[in-house]
Each structure stands twice: as C-alpha cells, then as structure tokens.
Amino acid sequence: MLEKLINYLSKEMDIPAQELNRDTTFESLHLDSLDTVEMLMDLEAELGVDLELEDKVATIGELADFIESKLD
Prior knowledge:
CATH topology: Non-ribosomal Peptide Synthetase Peptidyl Carrier Protein, Chain A
Radius of gyration: 11 Å
Shape: globular
Mean pLDDT: 91
Number of strands: 0
Order of helices and strands: HHH
Oligomer: single chain
Strand content: under 5%
Low-confidence stretches: none
Number of helices: 3
Number of domains: 1
C-alpha cells in the first residue's frame, strides 16, 4: 500500500517518487484538506473500500497503515 500511495502522490503532485517515503508528511507536500479528500475518494474507488478517516493522519506511512487495516 505504501508503494501505491507514493506512486499516486508522485504522479498527482509531479514529485519524484524517490523523494517520498513512509515518514513524508502531508504538510510538507502542502496538501490541503480538499487535496486529501480527493485522494481518499480516488483510493476508495480504486480499492472498493470506505476510507472514512476517524483520526488525522500526518504521514504517508500512517495513511498506508490505515488503508491496510480497512482492507483486512
């Protein structure tokens, strides 16, 4: 899942994937709440799972862990 998120963010934000890792924060990428909602909607459609965030996630790794918990 981490690799999928890194590839998605790399493509959407035109950032080399090598610059993104598990500890990269969404704040450092300058993602606002609208960007985050759009990303979650895209991932929901692709994965066929509801990704309603209960808590704020700060890093790519935290989001990957959250999505994996919803897929189990």
